[in-house]
Amino acid sequence: MTTTSFDFKRDALPHIIAVLVFLILTAVYFSPVLFEDKGLAQHDIQQFQGGAREIQQYRETTGEEALWTNSMFSGMPAYLINTHFPGDWSRYIHSVLSFNLPALAGNIFVTLLCAYILLVAMGMSSWLAIVGAIAFSLTSYNIIILEAGHNTKSLTIAYIPMVLGGLIYALRRNLWIGAALFAVGLTMNLHFNHLQMTYYMLLLIIVFAVVEIIYAIKHGTFAELLKRGLVLAVAAILAVGVNFGRLYTTAEYSEHSIRGRSELTQPNSGERVGGGLDREYAFNWSYGISETLTLLIPDFYGGSTTAPLETDSETYQAFTRMGVPPGQAEQIVKQGLPMYWGPQPMTSGPVYVGAIVCFLFVLGIFIVNKRWVSWLVAGTILSFMLAWGKNFEAFNYFMFDYFPGYNKFRAVSSALVIAQITMPFLAILALWKLINERDRIEGLDKKLLISGGITAGICLLVWLFAGTASFVGGSDQQLIQAQFPIDAIRADRESMMRSDAFRSFAFILLAAGLLYFYVKNKLSATVVIAGVGVLLLVDLWSVDKRYLNNTDFQQNVIADYFRPTPVDQLIMQDQDLSYRVINLPNPFNEARTSYYHKSIGGYHGAKLRRYQDLIDHHIALNNLEVYRMLNTRYAITGDPKQPVQRVPGALGNAWFVEEVNPVQSPDEELDALTMFDAGETAVVDVSKFPIEKQNFEAENANIELVEYQPNYLKYEYEAAEEGLVVFSEVYYADGWQAYLDGQPVDHIRANYVLRAMQVPAGQHTIEFRFAPKAYTLGNTISLVSSILLLLVIVGAIAYGVKKKPTKEVPVVEKV
Question: Where, by residue number, does the polypeptide cross the bilayer (predicted)?
């Protein structure tokens, strides 16, 4: 290979055109966002806004990070809600790569761009890479998670192709440019902190590494692979370093969250409850084994949990036969009925990678180099098995119990993320191979026929024999009780399956026809690439529009959702520094309450483990003493006649108690809250917090909160004698430091979740400051790593351009 001078038309223009294509696709799909200032009612984003409100207000007011918030679950670290790490410069990289587009539009644009980078790194032409980027990016899951508000998950997935592109480029071509690209991709993948998606990416890389090691040993290139692997390892360390603050605080907090080990014991045993999530909770969303066919036929199981129907549906006709007026019947079917009949409790839609992608994937198994096929097919199979969860329990229970870190994640159906990377990848490799090596592939006609026959044949069989399925869904009993025409609904489910089976059959036939005519020299490569690209776009785009279309976008979504209600306004008339509110109708699955009030409940996937124990054993059972000790002053009842109720006997921000109830274990500590007077007694696990004095004089003592900030509390008290104060604040040792008259002092845990402190007589000031060392250390390492990464990227690119290899390095074989 010889070094050639830069040519704009050859080296830059194709990529500029690709970016413009991606911008146009993004602008058309998300035109309401870009041109009409509309947004989505994304459930998770709305809950995020509620939980993050106090943190954001503090940042806007002071320019500092709160790191702790009392807006949810009576208080918790802000690390996984909305914490900024100034030392992490990767946010600027994302702004550049996303063209600073607004959320949703920016997510899909970055997904397109990163997929394009991967395919160009493979050596594909710009036009073919554009087609591949569409296949990667417009899989239904990428769109569905945006509708649900899983924006960070979306962006974590978006950067996976860039990571793979850097990895492959470093092994196949230029080590230094590849390592720099790998470092940037991994940095951005980690930046959005959806570790479950990163975990799946690492599993795929492990499969890739195993295959590469086997081939390197077989072909005598292990030393070269090891050398390049070490450089990539350094790049990975830099990427982790840039995100170290976020990862370190997350790791520290996870030990105290529901993802960590419980301190309680199993009933009737002396064994601790295992670390990680509960197995049943983690596997609740498991993809059905036969449900995997949705990758080929989107409505194989009825699409989303509720789906609209048209007036030509059996259900509409059945309603009219029942005497329902046509207008009312139309309204019923168009607002959505439970069409999903699969094994999951509910779903926003199927994972559909595309009929054409499935066809090309199978073709790739026959014609692509086995070294590539090995890891891409193995990764796909692994993805299926993981997603099946409890439906493939022997494998998945083993993974959950023994594979490091796997028990921290829930909704295992998300493992299909691996397949939505591997399947389009092998599919586009197959198209590339066919275009470039048409005349050198032995038996290409036969392989094309077999691939089309397998995938189109499955679709045809489903279309012919769909009537043999039961179409019985989990919600059918409720529909029958509500006197819905269940037979008609099941007929429409069958119709949806048949329709999509024929649809996929047609797309496969069209794509296979294009390739066949190319093989027979009847069409040019340009026409085939363009034709397959258009078919892919139409196929994926039209399915995506079922789940996210222009009618879903609205004006002022966030403002309307958080517009204060009369109930909010009534509660906010109370100007005390700090008190708590419980939303009784839905306390633990919403964070709207947290937008205006300090909430007993909230919405978060990683609340404190001890607080979850308190919810399960006491708050859910309406233990009034627990409400009192949490300073729950108001209850939102949901009753129009009395929408707000004052909780009797709320104990305030802090109070003196008269006695200590000593217990010897967390179980005893939690159980003791069942029958106790929170105003008189503090329950203390003396095995962890020894306290000699157990009786105190509280009659002539008072304490008042005089200053409140999320990460700072100041109290003033006066007591005639030594006393024990209980604070209505959640105990969290990793960061909260107590001070008495400015001097550091120890504090203890009481009542399972609260802080307490033994204090001397007299007039004194107590302060609590939240200044976790993990944040300070992590942010410093992030800053140093950001500087190093910037230098390494610039240096690697300069060196890589200057020192081009004279020949391809045979560490990774060509496709």
Answer: 12-30, 99-120, 127-146, 152-170, 175-192, 198-217, 229-248, 349-367, 372-389, 409-435, 447-466, 501-519, 526-543, 781-801
Pairing of strands 712-719, 723-730: unpaired
Structural domain boundaries enclosing 469: 267-284+291-298+307-329+337-523
Q: Are residues 579 and 713 in the same domain?
A: no
| Rounded Cα–Cα distance for residues 553 and 34 (Å) | 11
- Amino acid sitting at position 267: P
Check: CB of residue 633 under 8 Å from CB of residue 656.
Answer: no
The span from the CA of 621 to the CA of 638, in Å, is 18
Residue 768 CB partners (closer than 8 Å, separation 6+): 712, 713, 727, 729, 736, 737, 738, 739, 747, 755
- 319 and 341 together in one domain: yes
Q: Say if pTM beats, i.e. exceeds, 0.90.
A: yes
Distance CA(399)–CA(389), nearest Å, equals: 10
Q: How does pLDDT run across 191-227, given as a tens digit for each residue? A: 999 999 999 999 999 999 999 999 999 999 999 999 9
Residue-wise burial string across 545-579, b where 16 or more C-beta atoms lie within 10 A, e elsewhere: ebbbeeeebeeebbeeebeeeebbeebeeeeeeeb
DSSP H or E segment with residue 754: strand 754-759
The domain boundary residue, chosen from 646, 679, 712: 646
What is the DSSP code (8-state) at residue 590? -
Sign of the four-CA dihedral 67, 69, 73, 74? positive
pLDDT in tens, 235-280: 999 999 999 999 999 999 999 998 888 889 865 434 445 566 788 8
Distance separating alpha carbons of residues 96 and 30, to the nearest angstrom: 19
Cα angle, residue 558 at apex, residues 32 and 59 outer, rounded to 5°? 120
Residues in the chain: 815
Phi-psi group of 192: left, alpha or beta (phi > 0 → left; psi -120 to 50 → alpha; rest → beta): alpha
